[in-house]
Write a structure and sequence with these properties.
Length: about 325
């Protein structure tokens, strides 16, 4: 065992304490207080099964640093005075701990929070909305130990997995689904989510009567999912107005993905071959994103360079009740 693994690195003991609050957040994304709270929450579950005798603080700080930038694992290891294998193994352990024990940070709004969501979505001009859904492609290397690796090869000629995310008006993730191949379309993936399954069986346990979620045209229109009218260059002014207001409300998803990828830049280069490890790392970043939003107000962002992930596929077959409801909403705006 390397002796350096038994002590705190000079970087953590001498450099980090000199950071200003903004410098600390820029490098670790969380505030010092949030890091302390994170360590306290994970401490009961950290058993150091890796046998490195690395303190949990080192694990948390090194993992946050790794997820927040694109330094190579070797460069991170040098910074924290340990080995590449220790950085990699503890990153997996950190992500497993956060994913398993802090999953409550991603929660669906019901009751009063759902109504509050609708009130804020109304500020975009779109009524009775409790959440918005969108898909984002996470680039990966060619996956190993999967039945069909080429299913992960998407139309942009690179391997990816799909992150389907539901967001509230604050760009907070309220439900996520991660891991399906990048070549699969959004409608197909949506039907496999827990949200879609509940909407089929017990919709009012998620969405109050008369309310809905919103998504782009590549999601299935129904009374619980409002999507834009497909622009066939023959839309009425009423339909165009409806589309404008719905698309304005959908920017919360685009902003959430923008913030996620800019906070946790490792998502652009995970360098993991296991779909399980990748999915756990992505879920961890989504949880940390929500923690960041507990004290952040950086929602006024420029999203013009966001990777386009929606509206690229043909519109799914629409539900008749959804068609009727969409027409009624368009007429009321």
């Amino acid at each position: 065992m390397q002796r350096a693994e038994l002590k705190t690195s000079k970087f953590l003991s001498q450099v980090v304490p000199k950071y200003s609050l903004s410098e600390f957040q820029n490098h670790f994304r969380l505030t010092p207080r949030q890091v302390e709270e994170l360590i306290a929450e994970l401490h009961p579950f950290y058993s150091n099964q890796r046998g490195t005798k690395w303190p949990l603080r080192n694990v948390v700080m090194a993992s946050l640093w790794t997820l927040s930038n694109q330094e190579s694992y070797r460069e991170v290891a040098v910074r924290f005075e340990t080995s590449k294998s220790v950085i990699c193994s503890h990153l997996h352990e950190f992500c497993s701990l956060v994913s398993e024990h802090l999953s409550h940070k991603i929660s669906w709004p019901t009751g009063t929070p759902a109504i509050e969501n609708a009130e804020h979505f109304l500020l975009f001009g779109f009524p009775k909305t409790v959440g918005a859904v969108g898909g984002y492609q996470i680039p990966i290397e060619k996956p190993q130990n999967v039945e069909d690796p080429d299913a992960y090869y998407n139309t942009r000629q690179h391997y990816s997995i799909n992150l389907t995310a539901f967001c509230d008006y604050k760009c907070r993730f309220i439900h996520i689904n991660i891991g399906y191949p990048g070549s699969w379309d959004n409608a197909c993936i949506f039907q496999m989510t827990d949200v879609a399954k509940i909407l089929e069986g017990d919709p009012q346990s998620l969405i109050p009567e008369g309310f809905h979620i919103i998504g782009h045209t590549d999601y299935p229109l129904s009374e619980y999912m409002m999507t834009p009218f497909v622009d066939n260059e023959n839309l009425t002014e009423q339909q165009k107005n409806y589309n404008t207001k719905l698309l304005s409300a959908l920017t919360v998803v685009e902003k959430a993905f923008y913030l996620l990828k800019n906070r946790f830049r490792r998502l652009e280069a995970l360098k993991m071959s296991s779909i399980r490890y990748i999915s756990t790392a992505v879920k961890t970043c989504c949880i940390l994103h929500n923690i960041c939003l507990e004290i952040s107000s950086d929602l006024d962002v420029n999203i013009t360079d966001l990777q386009e992930t929606t509206g690229l596929q043909p519109a799914p077959v629409a539900n008749e009740n959804g068609i009727i409801k969409r027409d009624e909403i368009a007429a009321s705006l």
